[in-house]
Design brief:
The protein is α+β, with helices and mostly antiparallel strands. It has a domain of 158 residues. It contains 16 helices and ten strands. Strands 1, 2, 3, 4, 5, 6, 7, 8, 9 and 10 form a ten-stranded mixed beta sheet that branches. Helix 1 packs across helix 6 and helix 2 crosses helix 12. The longest helix is centred in the last third of the chain and has 29 residues. The N and C termini lie far apart (82 Å).
Length: 470
């Protein structure tokens, strides 16, 4: 409702032409959205209450206000805009069925294409922590998201099993992404049923991997075939492998690492190949750590001068930046234990892309803030940036250039008001919830031993003494 003294503008404009995601519109401009909608064949054929561009932004709004209902999300998008944009026609919020039908008409293609076109690596050479020896540090990881329990979703995505031999309560969609460690931005994604393994879905990321990258991955991703496929893109690899992986010592190097070769396994038989790898084995020698675990890394960088073993071992923990990205997506942006809204497979995929686009736009804003303040992007609070993005939407900041000019400095000032401290920390792999593969979290886990040394000082590469003697 207008306040006393407000004068309503008389320009005849449609409110839906101005609805956007506040300062996040700078990442997905309206003209790009219109082009994507048109190229995907989803442009409306007649004048509608919910045009295609509005529905694209609405899907992102669903991700931004994950706890709000369908109609409440639309109210957040239009709040205040009718008086700021000169719109004079009455516009009522559509009903939930109308919003659902508009999402179904839009389909998943525009959101998928928008993500592929706009979500590119953010870091520049000046971005702190984004490059190592001239290579952009990237990582591959995956997760699953709970989807509504409908027959259509179950047939498309399946259900994971449980230790009791029963199927899970919810169907799940598996998502594997390629992320930029320095900015925590997800730049490529592949999704499929939960019954499809992460290594299979990871092949959908190959088009986004290329020369100039150093790609990190956990031990669950290693296979002879996938290693060779990613290596063929021209990127350098640094992957962890399992402790029982047989890797003969072909040549011991001066820094303690050694050259070995991979074996291809066919029908339970191992066949030696001419694919060389460099192996780095090390524990973490830190008085604050109680674990005596040994780590084993494989890399395509065979020259110890170009990539010293201790530096690579200290770099590998950057892989955990993707875990932080998943926490931002699943706990802060979407909300803990929140199930996706969509009851159809197409809607589920569309919603996942909406979450990814929204997260990327927030991360782009954080990268701009970090560059403006000349700090590491890790020092910027995602929660503060998320709240600033939500507030900009409620204030009715649309796609107009002057509105973005005002909104961007205000958002930057808000999210850089208090920078996060970066400290060494460690947590037990235990959970409070039941029905988990991890042990139950008890009182003994509260005072978990904390690291005292950074990885660069704690790494002790095994075999260095042997190499000196040789």
């Amino acid at each position: 409702m207008p306040r006393a003294g407000w004068i309503k503008p008389q320009d005849d404009q449609r409110l839906s032409d101005h609805i956007a995601l506040g300062v996040l519109t700078r990442t997905f401009p309206p003209d790009v959205v219109d082009a994507v909608v048109r190229e995907s064949g989803r442009e409306q054929k007649r004048q509608r209450l919910l045009p295609s561009r509005l529905v694209v932004y609405y899907v992102m709004g669903l991700a931004l206000f994950a706890h709000a209902g369908y109609e409440e999300v639309m109210r957040n998008l239009v709040e205040g805009l009718s008086w700021e944009t000169g719109w004079r026609r009455q516009w009522t919020v559509p009903s939930q069925p109308a919003l659902s039908q508009a999402r179904a008409r839009l389909g998943v293609e525009p959101l998928a294409e928008l993500f592929a076109r706009c979500c590119v690596p953010l870091a520049t050479e000046a971005t702190r922590g984004a490059f190592w020896r001239g290579r952009r540090v990237m990582t591959i990881d995956g997760t699953v998201l709970d989807a509504p329990d409908t027959p259509e979703n179950q047939a498309e995505f399946g259900r994971p099993g449980s230790g009791r031999g029963e199927a899970s309560a919810f169907t799940q969609i598996r998502v594997v992404g390629l992320g930029e460690c320095g900015t925590r931005a997800v730049v490529s994604v592949a999704m499929g049923p939960c019954t499809t393994g992460e290594t299979t879905l990871a092949r959908g990321l190959l088009g986004s991997i290329g020369p100039g990258m150093l790609v990190l991955a956990d031990r669950g991703f290693f296979s002879f075939a996938l290693w060779n496929e990613v290596r063929a893109t021209g990127a350098e690899l640094l992957w962890r492998t399992k402790s029982n992986h047989i890797l003969p010592v072909d040549k011991r190097l001066a820094d303690g690492s050694y050259i070995s070769h991979l074996h291809e396994v066919r029908n339970s038989h191992r066949y030696p190949t001419d694919v060389p790898v460099r192996v780095i084995e090390y524990p973490l020698d830190d008085p604050g750590r109680s674990s005596d675990a040994r780590y084993r890394l494989l890399t395509t960088v065979l020259d110890p001068v170009a990539a010293p073993a201790n530096e690579l071992a200290a770099l590998y923990p950057e892989r955990w930046e993707f875990e932080t990205t998943l926490d931002e997506l699943k706990t802060h942006q979407r909300g803990p234990r929140v199930v996706l809204r969509s009851k159809s497979p197409g809607g589920v995929r569309q919603e996942v892309y909406g979450h990814l686009c929204t997260h990327y736009a927030i991360r782009a804003l954080m990268h701009t803030t970090a560059a403006d303040q000349d700090v590491d992007p890790d020092r910027i609070s995602f929660t503060r940036a998320l709240n600033a993005a939500r507030r900009s939407v409620r204030q009715g900041l649309g796609a107009a250039t002057h509105a973005l000019t005002v909104a961007l400095p205000a958002a930057i000032a808000e999210i850089c008001r208090e920078l996060l401290p970066r400290r060494l920390r460690s947590n037990p792999r235990a959970v409070k919830r039941k029905m988990s593969k991890f042990p139950v979290k008890r009182s003994a886990h509260r005072d978990w031993p904390q690291p005292r040394l950074p990885p660069a000082q704690a790494v002790r590469v095994l075999g260095a003494d042997i190499a000196v003697l040789e």
